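Exercise 3.2. Students should predict the tertiary structure of the chain below and write it as C-alpha cells, then compare their answer with the key that follows.

Predict this chain's 3D structure.
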Amino acid sequence: MSVDNIEFEGLEFRINSDVELKSDSEDKIKNEEACCDNPNIIIYRGIYVCNNCGMVKGPTYSTQGPRVFSAEDVKNKRKTEPYYNDTGYRTLISRSKVDIYGYPIKNKVRLKYLKLAKIQKSITNSYERNMMVASPKFGHIYSALGLSRAVIQEADNIYKKVLNEKLTTGRSINQLVAACVYIAVRLLDLPRTIEEVAEASHISVKKVSRNYRLVVRELKINIHPQEIPPFISRFGEELQLPGKYQVEAIELFQLAKENGLIATGDPKSYAAAAIYIVMKQYKEYKVNQKEIADIAYISDVTLRKKIRKIRSVACS
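Answer key:
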C-alpha cells in the first residue's frame, strides 16, 4: 500500500493511492473534462479527488451494508463517512494509529484521542437530535408526492424556525413536518391539497390542519388563498383531458367569476366542478361525478353544489 502526501489550498492531505473507484459513477467521473495534465482520480474520505492537483470531482456513496462484523469492516465503512449533515458541520476526531505524516501515535496520546472522539460523538443538542428524526420524514413525503427539491428546502427552513421557537415541545414531529410541507406548498403556489399531504404522511387531515394553523399563527406566515386555474390544469391532466378543454374549463370559471361568482371555500371543488361541466358537453368523454370527486378529495354532494353555483352564474 502506497501513501502520498498532497497539498491543497495550504492543507496537506495523506491519501492512499491504492484505493480503487467502486462507485457506479466511476465512468462519469473519468469521462469529465481533465482537471490537469495527468489526472489520477481516487476516493478520499467519501469524495472523488484528483491525487495530482487536488481538485474535488464530487461525492461518492458507499454500497456497503449497515452491518459490520470486524474492526476491518468498521474501518472500511468509515471511508465514506460524511463530515457534515443537514444540521450543519460536525467535527470528527480520527481513530487512526498514525498521524498525518505517517508516524505512529503513542498509545498514551492515542488513548486520549479515543476518549475525546467518544465524548465528541455523544455531544448533540436537542436541535440536532430533532433534525435527525425530521429529515428522513421530509424525504419520505418528497418521494411520495413527487415534490420538487425547492419545496422540501422551504419546508425544512420553516421547520428550523419551528425548532427555534420551541414549538415542538409536547407535539408530534410527524404532524409538524406534514404541516411545514403543506405551508411550503401554499407559499410556492402549488396545486396540492392538504389531504394529499396527510395521506403521504399517514396522518389524519384534522391533525395536519391543527398543526398548520399553529405554525402559521406562531411564525406569523402570510398565506394567500390558492388559485383555482392550477387545480383545473392538474385535475385535467389526471383525467387525460386535452389541453383545449382545460383552457375551456378555465375560461368557464373566469366567466363565472366576472359575472359575480364569489369562490369562497375550498378551491379544488370549484376546479372539479368546472372540469365536469366542460366534459359533460362532449360525448367522447364519459366521466361520472364520483371519479372527479375522488380526484379532488371532495364528496359528490359538494361537487353537485359547486356545479349548480357555477352554472347559475355563468349562464345568467
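Discussion points: The longest strand covers residues 3-8. The CA atoms of residues 98 and 104 lie 4 Å apart.
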